[in-house]
Amino acid sequence: MRRRISLPLKLFFIVFAFVLSCIILISQLSYRYVQKEIRTNDMYYTNQILDKVDQYLTVNFSSFQTILFSVETSVKANINNTEVIMKQLRELYELNSNYVSNIYLIKSDLSILGGSTPTRIFDGPLADRKPLFDAADKNRRTTFVSDPYKSKYSGWTVTMVRYLNGSPFPMAIAVDLDLNAIEETLFKINKKEQMNLALITTTGKIIAGFSENRGPLNIQDHTFAIGETSAREILDTTGTSLQLHTKDGMPVSILKKQTEKFNWSIISINDESRLEAALSRLETYYIWLLVAGLLLSLFISFFIAKYIRNPLYALKTKMKRVEQGDLTTTMTINRNDEFGDLSRASDRMLQQIVELIRRAELHNELERKLEIQVLQSQINPHFLYNTLGSISNVIRLGQIEKVDVVIGSLISLLEYGIADASEKVSLRQELQNVSDYIEIQNIRYNRHFDLIENVEEGLMDFPVFRMLLQPIVENSIFHGYNGGGIEGSITIHAYREGGIVMIEVVDQGEGIPADRIKHILDSEPSDVAVKRKRIGLNNIHGRIRLHYGEQFGLQIISIPHEITRVRAIFPAGMFKGDA
């Protein structure tokens, strides 16, 4: 036998699970919300850094443009004085050496006048200057910014070049940017903000950045890749942010921003180490929160269970005594709540029960006999009325030869019906009585109602009430077959199922609407039924329940115009009462 769990213990587990679930749910929701906010703020903060870098480049671009315009003005003023021009180039270079690698003039033969010391000495023509000069010559009204390249004198650099308009001979002004200075600035941001920034060209070349803090990057030949995704593919991706994975499966977040002045992109690659550190601290906090929630759940559950347990056990003890037959027991719980009300109400109820039992013992047997007599008095006159009506119809139709059959069946019905109602009969006798009744109805209505018996072996002698089946069969003819208007079969089944015996009367007539079935077995008959003295199925239902208990009686199952099944349910064991 499975061990039963007490109500206080169930209540303890329910409250514990509820409180702990609420704490876990709130903790998880708040953790996810904070996690989302941290990610959002991290992205917002990173975008702010990218904006600052863009502003820094915009300021530098303006400075470089100023240098170009200064050189242009100086050269135009001293076009025939090379020494003055070289001196001014040198002064401009020294003044801006923190930002530029060289300031120089490119002649049409690709020789130069340079401001830095190496280019003042080695100023001969170089073939790698031709793309710069051609670009300036082609775009004479704008400043051309080259892709990063390896310069012989400036190293890894980007050149800003502008054509010298108004000069008597073709010439271009060039400034080599000091990418090391830009990279140092990015490194400082990377170190301070725990970020990984770089400047990238439209072709995916790294201008500056990433060198000291490669992280998840695979850098080769001044370009990079993350996992299987190249720099060019990252730049071609729509949107300003994306998520990728390294070859090791580590997730990384990427933010992109197009610079305002240069045709470059600022790239931020975050391997989420900073975010993970913040979330790790947050997780520690939530672990302690869950531990506190667990302890709080245990305390609340124990307190509530104890508050319920004491009065509940007192009431349980009281009910045990009542169960053992002590109806005079009292155990008032002095509490001003529902348990106190329940205890006082149970005391009053026990007093009333004692009085009711006393009265019931006096009147129970008399009431039972009276009910049986009343039920039987409803049955016998009704059978006689219908049977005499059948004889009248036979005579009116001139079927004199059938009068003896009807009278013989009538005699059998009267002998059967007027016997002692409390006497039980066998199912075989009930079936014979139904057969006599069907014989009369066949003659009365000039129809053929076929009686089919399907009785399980051993149930022919099963004891049932006298006049049990005939009213049900009459109901099938009167209602199911429209009072003889149509004919059909009536099948009687009898079978065992578990600890009960079921006897069914089945017809294929008109059926009973679903909204009427629940009212048929009501204990009070309708006024029409009383006036017609018709035996309702509720009479049979009441007799069965009176003798065998509330769980037995009649069941009605009907599908209109298909089948109606009236099922009488009896216990398979000993009868109660006068069995």
UniProtKB/TrEMBL annotation:
The answer to whether the entry has keyword Metal-binding is no
User: Where does the protein end up?
Assistant: Cell membrane
What membrane topology does this protein have? Multi-pass membrane protein
Q: Please tell me whether the keyword Ion transport is annotated for this protein.
A: no
Alphabetical list of SMART domains matching this protein: HAMP, HATPase_c
| Entries under SUPFAM superfamilies matching the protein | ATPase domain of HSP90 chaperone/DNA topoisomerase II/histidine kinase, HAMP domain-like
Taking every annotated instance into account, which residue ranges of this chain make up the domain HAMP? 306-358
Q: What is its main location?
A: membrane
> Which keywords has UniProt assigned to this entry?
Cell membrane, Kinase, Membrane, Phosphoprotein, Transferase, Transmembrane, Transmembrane helix
Transmembrane region positions? 12-31, 285-308
Q: Which residues form the signal peptide?
A: none
- Report the protein name in the record: HAMP domain-containing protein
- Which species is the source of this protein? Paenibacillus marchantiophytorum
